[in-house]
Amino acid sequence: MVASAALADLGTWDPVVFGLVLILVVGAEFLELEYKRLSLSGSLLGIVIAMALLGPVQAAAIASFANLIWILRCPTRFSAALANIASCATFPLAGGVVMIAMGDVLETRPKEFLFAVAVTAGFIVAHAVNWGLTLTMMRLIDGASIREQLRTAFVPLLPSEAAVALLASCVVYAEASIGKVALGFLVLLFFLYLYLLRELLLSRERAELLTRRTEQLSSLQVGVLTAMLRTLSMRDRMTARHSAAVARYARELARAAGCTKEEQDLVHTAGLLHDIGKFILPDHILLADTKLSEEDWQLIKMHPYQGARVVHEVEGYGPVADIIWAHHERIDGRGYPRGLTGEEIPRFSRMISIADTYDVMTSRDSYRDPVSSAEAIEELRRVSDKQLDGELVEIFIEMLRTRDVAFRHADDADFEAELSFERRVRDHAAPRGIPAAA
User: Which residues, at least 6 apart from 253, have a Cβ–Cβ distance to it below 8 Å?
Assistant: First the structure.
């Protein structure tokens, strides 16, 4: 109060400008935006304009009135309310005095561009006083760390508040040069800006919420796939262990072929799920140890399609489904279910085919007596460029020769290591771009 009385002669009283700025400040309080724990308000712009066009006392009155509205709208503790009132009554006085002093020193007035320096100087002082009082009161009332508050609240707002100082300078110059109509027009434009910004932020929040919901749904769907594979393991241990082995071999083949880390993870996931379609098979086929009928074989030939159809329902797993669908196709076109040939078969599907063929031949859990790795390699070369991709076969054979790549079907630890889905839930189920099957 004493300071206000002493400064009463500073500034000018213009009821029209006062009314327009008051509308701007109060309206901005009601259009305050909350986004990611930050409060965005245009009231500071109005207070800075009041400091420049009306003077420190009038600016302090407008700031105090706006603060009173905030307290009525958002009831808070008495101590915090008192601190806000003190801050709002003080920083406009300090900033307004500095603006007037700088204007006198520079011999400039609002009609001149140089007055922007005075506006900026006053803003800096007002800003420092406001934050200094606020941080001190938070320290006294809540015990909050001043350093932490500076780091988390003060510094992130500096760019936007510097923009406020620049915008305030432009508004002051426009009002002084063109008149009150310009100020009224700018007030309307600012409200339009706040409204559009609020709608944009609300739209972004809704999009982020939708993204989180989609991720949650994807995680649930992948969890279902995991449960299916574990159930398959209990129903047919051999098929589940085989899938884990194929995943390991296929990932190592992709690495040896120069694929990216994302592509290696993609083919690994497809290897784990490549036989998930065998859920459609009845036990007399899935667990058969005798020759199957032609009707049974027709059912078996549908498992790539059925597996792809199930996996395709998971958000973001389209490329995995494409690989699964084609993993029993042959280079010569005699494969199933679509009879694709050569380059028509996705490259990662061709990798799965090689890993699948090798593990079936060498696994102790396979339907036939296992053969040695050397015998399996000889067979891979025999069917190279007929059943399997010849170039990838040679890369696979070189990989087996130079790297220690093996899968112990009887070891639960090997199975669990390949089945760990948690990372794949994050990497593949999230709604973002995934490398398409080559």
Answer: 267, 351, 354, 355, 392, 395, 396, 399
Report pTM. Answer: 0.51
Contact 17, 175 (CB under 8 A): yes
pLDDT in tens, 17-61: 888 888 878 877 776 665 554 455 667 778 888 888 888 989 888
Residue 214 exposed, middle or buried by CB count within 10 Å (0-12, 13-18, 19+): middle
Q: Which one, of 314, 317, 382, 391, lies nearest residue 351 by Cα? A: 391
Q: Alpha-carbon distance 360 to 37, whole Å? A: 56
pLDDT in tens, 266-299: 999 899 889 888 877 777 776 666 677 788 788 8
Helix (H, G, I), strand (E, B) or coil at 180: helix
What phi, psi does 76 have (nearest 5°)? -140, 175
Phi, psi angle pair for 427, to nearest 5°: -80, -35
User: Are 327 and 336 a contacting pair, CB within 8 Å?
Assistant: no
Residue with tokens 């380059």: 343
